[in-house]
User: Fold these one by one.
Assistant:
Number 1:
Amino acid sequence: MSKEIVIDKAKAGLSEGSVEQAIVFESGNEMAAYAAHQINYHIMGYYPISPSTEVAQFLDGMKARGQHDIKLIAADGEHGSAGICYGAAAGGGRVFNATSANGFLYMLEQLPVQSGTRMPMVLNLVNRSVSGPLNIHGDHSDLYFALNIGWPILMARDPQVVYDMNIMAIKLAEDPEVRLPVIVSYDGYFTSHQKRRVQVIKDNDQVQKFIGEMPTNFPHALDRDNPVSIGAYMNEPDTINNRYQQSEAMYNAEKVFERITKEYAELTGREYPILDLYKMEDAEVAVFMLNSATEVCKDVVDQLRAKGIKAGVISPNILRPFPQKQIAEALKNVKAITVGDRGDSYGAHGGNMALEVRAALQTYGNHDTKVINRVYGLGGKDFYADDAEKFFQLAIDAVEADKVEVPFDYFGHTPGNPELAPKRRVEPLKKEDLRTGLITVTPNEETGELKVKIPPLRALTKKPKRISSGHGACPGCGIFSGLETFFKGIEGDIVALFHTGCGMIVTTGYPYSSHKQTYIHNLFQNGAATLSGVVEMFHERKRRGEFDALGLSDDFTFVMVTGDGGMDIGMGPAIGTALRNHKMIIVEYDNEGYMNTGSQLSYSTPLGHMTSTSAVGPYQAGKAFHHKDTAQIMAATNISYVFTGSEAFPQDLVKKAAKAQWYANNVGMVYGKILIACPLNWKSNETLGQEIVDAAVNSCFFPLYEVEKGVTKLTYNPEDKKKRIELSDWLKHMGKTKHMLKEENKEMLQEFEREVERRWNQLKAKHESPYL
């Protein structure tokens, strides 16, 4: 966070209030975190997703410096984070979260439960385009899914408003006339990452005095003298009565918000009316916008006014409850308005905001104001002043023509042109090149054990790569060298599904693809389920003889590639896929974090390792709990084959790939885990990747083994080879772990060493006995 500066506000033209304020120069995400630390919430349950991830990162860094007492809980996915928050709210404390886009949709199932049981909290929704296709930039398609979940929604157009709305939001949520969870909505990357000058309340005690003591007169789960049932089953007529009470609370939020903003204005000098109206007093044409694009339109209003055109801008500061009456009043003398929607309500002949503005006019008897609707700015497409001019011109044209020529359309798009369809740049790989015959896997008829024969690795260099060069991976990235080594052991054609992650993002920037064979993408949480559907369709069509009839190949190996924490949020479907035993391979590249969203901790991050959400400082020293042993978890599902591998031991990895293919094609699901280097986030030399993963193996942190039909076998034992090294000899190579070697962190290092030794000895015991 930037250093606070106290200045003469009158000279600077800043707002005056009853409390001392300071100036910081920060982004929207930083201001959400800043407000949260001043409120000092009890719990934040979170999961990383761009562009909201930074909120948790900033809070984690502040926690490491001892600036707040918030318990930050890294969930296994957004659904889990929503559960953490609901449970914490049911426990009677103050709760905070931040998310975006598909993460918001993943938790969506749970959000009406929280509002329906009247459990307050604050959620920052950092608006981002909802997939698919995958896009991480800002529009309002996620916000529009929030309109019907029963949460009041506050709108924040710049970092100053993000700060102010976050402080007011918890007061609104806890008000006895409301008692609902509240969303603060602001634009991803436009507001979340762009820095602005922001006034903040200097004394945290003044913030807490403003929001008040946490209410204690409502039932919660931790009062043993007053046990309650939370979320009871409810039939009619109780359900409709419950909904009616919730509806009344939502409409109460409007008047409570008005009261809170007046109190806040006395405190800070900044007031937020229900509608942010800019030069609407005598406006004849207007534009209705949400959040950051509003400020662009205001500049254009000044230019139009200089030309004698009476233009104005409307933007709500609260979106739920929808300020219907105030909008109708603001538009009573307006001849035409263009409503901008940064998201579509597909098939409804307009975006959500246009539909609601039209409803407001209809409700209050205004049949004269003409409404034009344009969907704009999807996927983060910029909205410039000349775009705003065109929005105003649409309204001006409607006034002059006395009709709206095109009530609804997209703006800034290019209609599809078949002549410009992407053309194939790489010819399909030849089957004879992929099936070399140099690798053989033969089952022993008596024991059932597989005998694998591979040639010298140089003989496999002629085998074409499955992923072409030209992708956007960082220098030294181990994903593709590790995957390609694995793929050297796979003969024939593949269909690959990639989870969201670095491997997916850097290879598929439309309209280009680095994948030479069929590639599918689906979201983190259900990749395994998706590929299992493809697998079963393949076998069913093959059974029906459809491939023969169409002259198509019926020889595929199905591989799901996961990594960047994908086996946290995707663990459930992966286990389900294993239990159903679909004929496919899941291979995890383990880079020990969520690298694609900025190096947050994942459950595969080892104890003590520094990430952007396990910061190092006087009050914490990296990740506080041990890493998840995914291979052992998958072995417990009793699938036929589980393995670990490393490109530092290529012969071992190629052999295991060949085994994996045989089991996947003949028996059922296979799981493999490959340790790969990430120089950027490991803070290591990009030329030392293989050396570092080699050290991880020889320190016994990442043992090389396989579990074949339930029997564990070490495929490399550094003790037998006289190559075992100290754990510190691995850790010293990476900037993310050097703090662990300092004297003040000696106990943490010893705890890490004990756990590595325990897991290693357990594996050796399993190697010695087939019954373990």
Number 2:
Amino acid sequence: MKIMFIGATHEVTGSCYYLEAAGRKFLVDYGMEQGPDYYENKDLPIAPGDLDFVLLTHAHMDHSGNLPALYAKGYQGPIYATEATCNLCDIMLRDSAHIQMFEAEWRNRKGRREGKPEFIPAYTMEDAMGVLRNFVRCPYDKIIKPAEGIEVRFVDAGHLLGSSSIEVWMTEDDKTEKIVFSGDIGNVNQPLIKDPVYIKEADYVVMESTYGDRSHGERPDYPVMLAEIIQRTFDRGGSLVIPSFAVGRTQEMLYFIRQIKEQGLIHGHDGFTVYVDSPLANEATTIFSENAYTCYDEEAMDLLKKGINPLFFQGLKTSVTTDDSRAINFDADCKVIISASGMCDAGRIKHHLKHNLWNPKNTVLFVGYQAIGTPGRALLEGATEMKLFGETVQVAAEICKMPGISGHADVNGLLDWARAFDNKPKHVFVTHGDDTVTEVFAQRLKEDLGYDATAPFSGTEYDLLENKCIHEAPGIRIVKATASPKASRAARAYEKLLAMGRRLMTVIRKNEGCPNKDLDRFARDIQSLCDKWDRDDI
């Protein structure tokens, strides 16, 4: 009975744990690495086809994003997850597959001219569709038995719709050990979804530490704060543009705006329009509504019992087609535009920035983390101009942010979750945090709670029957060549182009079922663009 740590060790993303127990081999999560990658990850110790099953904590790509790749390499077994996680993965993994295929197509087009071997994408749409057929929907709080000698229960982690901590009981030779995987632990008092469930018993704990070294600070009154921003923007005759992540954050913004309208917090602009211009966000909002009765918190459920949809209000308009999106910028009235992507590095939000950044009457409001190097980060740091679709746009709009919004528990929330155990676990493994953060939080668990806690590196193995480390792997840092400034600029320009290509694939999918004459016109537009840029001199 053992666990091997594969991903999200001394790093925030790439969650993956390999376990052997009761004669079975299985994974908990199989996520993508996103953002900076500092340490090498060990490969799975067995062929994917030899795995018996997978347990999935939630739908975010850094936990689920590599599941189609696992399928592509031969895995045909079940993937156990909550109902809402299955629903969100259905849209998110298909979207990810389109991205993989588009990037491979571009690389191969360029590589053929350079005589390079064919680039194979991590997975295809067929792989995504194949793995999605193997998802097994599990209710919260009910024990399931994926194999003889192994029992599993999903409990609400309060991080994302359908997110879970996973309790696993493993029995060998009449001895049972319980290991708990925290998943991503949610922030308390988030809109819509429930607070994280505290688990009372565990022999071992694998625990995240994303915010293990800092606090979110005092929680603002978000509806009041948002209302103040809308009010002053509308009073000067402008519109509010909100770059927002499609799954989770967009739904929170809708929840706040419904409250604002219900409470009459905006004066002199009754019935203002709110546009959600993101097909993925619109699909995700539908999934939120479909899973309300199993995932919503008490406040949201009280609204439903009164016949009120907490994500709908008068003046809400959803944009699906590109024509819908373009039409928003010809609406001269004061309005709110919520659009993806959340960091302004791709998607329809860039069109809205082009039409709104130059006007001092308007406001751009950031409601999520902006990574270094993204356009969103540049705007927050005071950029005076921005290049959008080959045109330099002056930044005259008000730029502001709503602080403290996070789907993750801060250090105090993490400690509250950890201290809920009635008895001290035998060992706590701290993962899913930036390099030193994992060490810092492991030390907090030792000092504050008296827990035996460590922060393993990838490849570390631990015997869960004997409570001892079998192999303590060292952290192997990834050494990357330093690129020249010119190469870095070229890489950023190419990444922007790739982002637009991914957006084009999304738009194409959304136009399925449109009238033939519209599809023919769309095809001609794309053909014209391809003819212009498919040159021999590039």
Number 3:
Amino acid sequence: MQLEKEKKEKREQERCRALAQRIVEEANPASAALLGEQMSLLAKALHRAGVEAEEWTESSAAELLVVTDPAWETLPETLPARVLLVSDESTVMAGWAEQLAQRGYFRDFGWRSKGRVQQSALFCTSQPTQLKMVRGYEMEMDILRDRMVRAERTCGEEAELIARLRSDLSLSRSHEQQLEKTLGEVTGSKFWKMTWPMRYVVSKSRQLWHTLPFFVLLRELRSGGIEGVRELARARREYAALFPGKVMRADRFAPVELLVRQVGDQPAGPKISIVVPLYNTPLDFLEELLDSVVNQTYRNWELCCVDAGTAPGVGEMVQQRAAVDPRIRYRKLEKNELIPGNTNKGIEMATGDFIALLDHDDILHPCALWYAAKAIAEQGADFVYTDEATFEGKVENVVLYHFKPDFMLDNLRSNNYICHLTLFSRRLMDAAGGPERMEYNGSQDYELFLRLTETARKIVHIPHALYYWRSSPGSTASDISAKTYCIDAGIAALKAHYARCGVAVDDVSLIPGTPGYYKTDYTIDHPGRVSILIPTCDHIRDLETCVESIYARTTYPDFEIILIENNSKAPETFRTYKRMQKEHPDNLKVVTWEGKGFNYSALNNFGEKFATGEYLLLLNNDTEVITAAWLEEMVMYAQQKRVGCVGAKLLYPDDTIQHAGVGFGIGGVAGHLHKYYPASSDGYMGRLNYVQDVYADTAACLLIRKEIYDEVGGLDESYAVAFNDVDFCVRVRQAGYTNVFTPFAQLYHYESKSRGMEDNPEKQKRFQGEVLRFQARWGNLLAAGDPCTNPNFDIQREDFSLKILPLE
């Protein structure tokens, strides 16, 4: 009961925090008056955001009145110039809108109502034009229609799923009963009872085979020969002397031979200072941490422990270790300055050229510093990070592997994916403005990493899980909602990052329902025309769905549609072309390609000649727009000079993923990441929720600046059907641009309806030829792998299945 109460309080705190942030970002009042439920929580959140907030009274002089749960409130006699209604029940808005209209208040459609649960609407005394009012309400109706359609579809799918699960459960129970009956018959039989001594002997023999030294020696001789046995024995003797940690033994993580070999092959790296802020650390956790550090195969390190806690035994344990190993240093702090301040005290102690940050209840893999030092010595890295694993209880009980991409700016701007283990040079830290900052407490590492990566000369990612993050109640590893102040600090860190980089943004917000993932709304400084190129051949109903959804739902003001006619035969197709041109004479035209067959590359290259826009959008005719702001979401990235292709989130009609970025090398060429995942899924480590850098995007919906399209020579027409988009994206990357996927632009994609499937020998031969051509052209890059994913994923699958690399 208490736990449920705490969860409810956390949810309310988060809702109030998000609402306060939006009020500041969009309404920007100096003062606000509050009326309704959760006034105290909202008042605190507004105070933290810099807004004076108090309970509503008739004498209040606030600029904004915020009414929560308006269904239970009475409209005050006197009102300020702006009134914000916030409700869990969308049905109450109509009645209040009518009351406010009678008082001379009108809906302000500049206020963006985010979220499907908590609805909000801003009313003010300035009257919009009739056209703006109609357009605003129509946009709201479109949003509601889309939500209703998707909700109905989801309900139907859930009902079917429940029916299947009930059927499966019934079958499972029947099968369980049958197995229990069979098991009872077997164990109750005379033969089972008579053979018990024989089974016992066999079981014990197997145990002896795996544990008795003589049999173990025989297995080792068979696998490695006499020399292998000698080498293993030597390594075991050396291991005992080299790795003193007994509780958290190094050989729990890696083979003895590898550990000893790394000790004997020391990289010419710098001294690494490991900084650990201690605070009432459980002694068993601390002992494991200390063992994991002294067991490092890289020897040039020091451990700087700063203790701000009051728990007995912590300081004594560290000092006992320091008496044995002088590389361990301890300092008792006079007061607790929270994680940023305590960490900075540890950095002041450090004498190494590189700093590594380690949490007081986590564990380092014994090879962690060796790989980092190797990257520093051989690649000149000044910023290094590794993959990590989250565990519960024993370190072997890994519940999650976080295998990360190489450094990707858009990923970092969406969440602190770098996290643990991170090392950086002291020179880099000083150049980036010093260590951690108190004003970002809760996201101090994120803020530091943003500054460091802005300045770093060489960032190296080590694709091995070398940091073990302990998941415990209240830890960020288990649930960031346990520390809601982290979210505010993360948003502030991102805003500061954009200010330093000179990047204009309209808003930075937490993506609802996610554990610390952020959405950036970049200011669209270059809102040029988008030329939408749609190759089409008959299948006129699909084309009508596509075109009508663009005109009905798109809020981006400046676009044109170029229909590229490709050998259509049906008279209805041409009648539809004429009707569309008559309905949209200013921004829809039809151009006719004179080629034969289907060549997607040639069709788009032909259509591009007629484009008048600054941006080109390659779009299949079997798509349908879902999100109204899809073009805004794509243009805000395509306008950036560093960005090349921008792809959207495409769904099959059954609301499963068709495209969420293309993984390079999957299946020998490329594959769609998260294919067939449910649209509601978060994906691997939340990757379906946030904007990220990808190797390639599908040309079924791909936006790019026209100047880049021309720079790389457009699509390669030797790829008639398959891989033309991947080849194009590779060439865009080779030209120095970043390709991006955004989940906030969503469309349905009824894939391959126009061109058909690869279902005859001629098509299959053409497809195989394009595969071989692609592999011959990009063989070196395919061998290098996809830096936007991770080499620990199974290259034959699109679902982020693991195939963990061995340590070398």
Number 4:
Amino acid sequence: MKFSISGKVMFIYSLVFITIIFLTFWLSYAGTVGRLEQDLKNTHIALLKQIDDKIEIVFRQTERDLLNMSQELEYVYFMYDSYDDAAQKYSNFFGLSNKLKTVVHTNELFTSIFLYSEVSGDILTDKTYMKRDVSEDNWLATYIKMKGHSKWLTTHKVWDGEKEQDVVTLIRSYPSISSPEYRKGLVAINISEDVLYRMIKDVYEEDHGGHTFIIDDQANIVTHDDSTQLYKNLSDISYIQQILSHNGSGHFTVKMEGIEQSIFYTASNYTGWRIVSVIPKSKVYQPLESTRSLMIAFAVGMVLLALTVLFYVNRRTFKPLDRLVGKMSGALKPVHPEHESMRSVVGLGYLETVFDQMFVDREQLEKQVRDSKPVLKWRIILDMLSGYRTEYASVRHHLEFTGIHLFSERFVVCTAEIGKEGGVSPKDETLYTYALCNVAEELMNMEHSGAAVDLGAGFAAIVFSFAEGDMEQNHLRALAVLELVLDVMKRQFGLQVTIGVGRCYQDMKDIPISYEESQKALQYKMVIGRHSVISIEDLGTDNQDYYRMIKMTDRIAEALKQTENEKLEGYITELFQEAVNGSLSPDLIKQLSYDLIMKSLQVVASVGINTEETLEEMGNLHQRIHQCDNWQDAQRIVKTILERLAGKIEGKRSQRGNNKTIDKLLPYIREHYRDSGFSLELLSEKFQLNPTYISKLFKEYTEKNFIDYLIEIRINASKELLVVKNRKINDIAERVGYTNTRSYLRAFKKYTGMTPTEYREWVLESEEKAASE
């Protein structure tokens, strides 16, 4: 069969066009289904991370609760085994046990609390008390030499005095910050394994068809939806070994018992545990079945429709060409010249119209591509920051198309925030951010490479790329360029620009890490101030400074109790200055402010002032501190609240008046405190008063317990005797009422922070220095 020219062209054009249709639908199918598969994987990993976040929040709150509990005076007596007699010891045990019960009953997460004194070997829980010689299983003692100050134990069985339970345990040393050789004991909080299992169950609202469990770094089961798996070790399973060899999150597929299983896992940065989900692969991708079927049916229908339209349009389009060729070759039959001329003009005119429309469409397509480049650039950079694009080779052509030039390695990510005195309107905010991105790219690309995009709300992300140099050198180069950016934006636009800078990393896959570090560094604008470049390298990360500053709050609480306003103001200023100079993070500065106010409220409560009314007057305290933009605002809130509390204490004391009974008791105590047998019972017999009544009077009018008041008098008296150089410590202890020198040494150290010998040397050195001057 002989084809005409139009027939051949139509056949070739149809073949090419149909091929393009098939390829387009195939790529659309592969892209859509592939992306949905990736989204399903990301969803499963996100659920595991949600479990990890819930566990970390609970565990961190537990650690804070444990730290707060261990600062009580009863804990000190128990850990140091510091008692004058057996009555005081068991009285302290009773009070401490009640506090432990209160903590356990008010927090449904806690199963039990254990206190272990290395000094006495005793164990006290919220349900029982075990002496050293009757404790059959002193499991806590094995952790007295543990590394670090705290440790999370995976699921184990613990007997709390009533029953044996499967628990996860947080152990913390006492004192809180102490090396193994100076530890006096341990404090432990037990959380039921069922609590961890419920956290997993709450995240998965319905049965997902698989198993989800948690293992520690030794492959021991921490919690499992199948309770029979507890206490098993899974290290001999190949896919568990693969999980333990990787950090972070991931996914892979294994075949078990002839069935393909999808393994999802994530590693906790806080505990180091792995959260694992094992789901049959068919269950994971079940939601895709309907999508696959629909896309295939749609593709087949579109191909059939395209074929029909294609043949019809092609035959109509190339018909004038057939006629033209027929005329030139004389192959067409003769027709009336006028009619034939008219038909040829109409056919060729239609063909010319088609070609003109093709050129117009091409120009419009080029314009759309040019207009879409900024959006494509924004999308690519955000994918790199979020970790969706991690291979340079796969993204290089997209970068070149949008005009971005990045090297294949050595990346630094920065997060910038714009601001202006008086604020910036949303409209101007977009323009200023656009100007910031342009300035940053212009300065970066003079010597290096990089790109900047608008993140919205006055924030921008800046990505540096370097051709050579080590990590530290490139980090310094980025800082130098950013200083120029700040100068230009201030000089030309009057803007305050604050920039957080992450570390330099070798590979593109680490860009999200640098981006997260830059956001963390930017938060330090609260400490360092606005219009500055803040590097993650310059930030302090040691929480030891925080615990040291927590200790500094003790003297603030004491100044508040004594209503010494000048000292109070000076101590607050010094505390915040120390926090800023120590590069304490904004979150820790806010936490320090909150803890200081809470400690001050305890002082107010000890005076007899209603703390609930005081808290209502302060408003939403947590929200006020959280919204502070800089450390000066936090200091101002703390200072205002503490001055108000000092005023309440003064008002309470002015209303109290005098009490004749207390006026008789205090001189008698100061006269007889040297008697080693002096006690609350003897005092009650002397004045024919109930011991409970005397204790209540002491608390109300001296704001101290009787025993604390007596110890304070004895310690102050011993200070005067210590000034005499040759006087023995044993004799001094006996003269102030201590028959046991060890008890005296312990009490003196507790109240002064020094041993009697150290105090004597300090006083004598001060006197010699004063005399020489």
